[in-house]
Amino acid sequence: MSKKYVLIVDDDPDLVETVSMMLENKGYEVGKAYDGIEGEEAIKKRRPDVLILDVMMPRKNGYQLCKELKSNKWTQDIPIVLLTAVGEAVPTTTYSHAEGMATEAEDYIPKPVDAATLVEAVERLL
Amino acid sequence: MEIKRIRIGGLKVLEGGACVVSSSPRGEDCLSARLAAPLAQSKINLTFLTHVAGDREVLCTAGEAGEAALTLLKTHTAPQGSLQLQSGTAVLSLYPHDKRPEIIGNFIRSLARARVIIHGLASSPSAISVVLSARRKKAAVQQLFEDFQFSSFESPKDFFEAQPPPREYLEKVVATYQEKVIKVYWIVPQPDLDLWGLSISSSEILEGFANALMDLADLGLKVPFLVALPGLGSKEFIVACSTARPLSAGDQGLEVRRLLKQHLPEARPMRLTPVAGLFLHGPHFGDRYGIVHTMLEALEGAHVSLLALSCTISSISLLVRQQELAAAQLVLGNTFEAPVESPPAAASAK
Q1: CB atoms within 10 A of CB A108
Q2: What are the tens digits of pLDDT across the range B317-332?
Q3: Pick the CATH number of B7-178+193-273 from 3.20.20.70, 3.30.2130.10, 2.40.30.170, 3.40.109.40
Q4: Which chain A residue lies closest to B176 (C-alpha atoms)?
Q5: For residue A103, what are the domain limits?
Q6: Structurally, how many domains does chain A consist of?
Q7: Tens digit of pLDDT for each residue in B126-176?
């Protein structure tokens, strides 16, 4: 049986590395992209079983990409976990929880990410 | 070994910074009290920090905090020590390096070819970063596009157009998380490393070191840790790098030494083995003051001596003597909130 494929899109390369290690350790195949547009290209090349998506990214932010994927009939079924630092944790941010909820992502995890929570979220969506 | 245009994930630049190069007389070091505590108490974020035993550091802050950092450090540095402030700096990071010496070597060689003066180099688990004058960043990026292919950008123009407005990112994420116990995504130990220390006459001949790194790839070696910083005066540049050999390979120390001597005939490489790396993944090093201080205070309290320290992007990497690894792991595990489970040795050695 082929491994489940999880794509992580985040502009923090250390976070991408960490989450990749966590998921590879659990037996998943992991793809990496470092901004919204690169993530979009990666999805065109291979449809992920779960997409982990950061919100604050250059070129195309996670909310934009999430909305686009959810409004496209070819990609709307890809389960998406949004990762972000918003609300109480980052008083200065312009991104909001409400905006995140409106994207119709399947899950929404605040940073700093709890490793076990993230892995649980991925496993729940597979 | 000639490598053309390695394909790689990304590049980022953090502008509007200031850099302080610090040195203190040998034997007087207490990095926590001398450097980290005053900066943490004044809520000054560090965007970059390197340290090598022998009491030398390079640290970077946001530009407007540079003078304040310098003033604070002056009051905590012995009279024989020295401090130099460089304003108008940028931190340029390339990723992911995958611990591959040919990627790190090619990055350093690009900087040499662009005739960039390097104020400091640091590695994170995924990235290799350089501190340089912001005025030279375009030249550096142009040369990097000659030597690498980036998934996200076709040209330097694409890259610069995609950058957020200056400082937007720093303002959005500065000093955010205030947990009582700092959360770290993962503390990954990596034992059985060799530490190579080199003193070379200037950053200008780092190209020789870059070529040596690129040849190390042929030995199957990985480079999980690298820092470089100016030494005392302008005529010296210190490089500390760790290598991890494949499990199947024997001791390749002689071969590494030969390569270093071949490319840097005047350098006298020093090897310390075995040493261990500890990689604190993603404790938001770059956007929250006080994390390094917390870590140093814990290590000093446990009488663990740092051999070298590298902080960039969002992670902290450090080297200790192998016999101190268990103590370091224990105290860091008690100090930070981090997963207890460690990845398998094979995964951490990749």
Answers
A1: 17
A2: 999 999 999 999 999 9
A3: 3.30.2130.10
A4: A90
A5: 5-125
A6: 1
A7: 999 999 999 999 999 999 999 999 988 999 999 998 876 555 444 444 444
Whole-complex ipTM: 0.86
Q: Which residues fall within 8 angstroms of residue A122, CB to CB, at 6 or more apart?
A: A6, A23, A28, A50, A52, A81
Nearest-CA residue of chain A relative to B186? A18
Tokens of B322: 């192998």
Write the CATH number for A60: 3.40.50.2300
Which residue of B151, B153, B185, B187 to mutate against A (max A Cβ within 10 Å)? Answer: B185
Nearest to B171 among A17, A33, A92 (CB): A92
Average pLDDT, chain B: 86
Q: Which of A12, A24, A114 sits opposite B313 (nearest CB)?
A: A12
Q: CB distance from A113 to chain B under 8 Å? A: yes
Give the minimum alpha-carbon distance from B209 to chain A in angstroms, rounded to a whole number: 25
pLDDT tens for chain A, residues 1 to 126 = 689 999 999 988 998 998 898 899 889 999 999 999 999 999 999 999 999 999 888 788 888 999 999 999 999 999 999 987 654 444 444 555 566 566 678 888 877 777 778 889 999 998
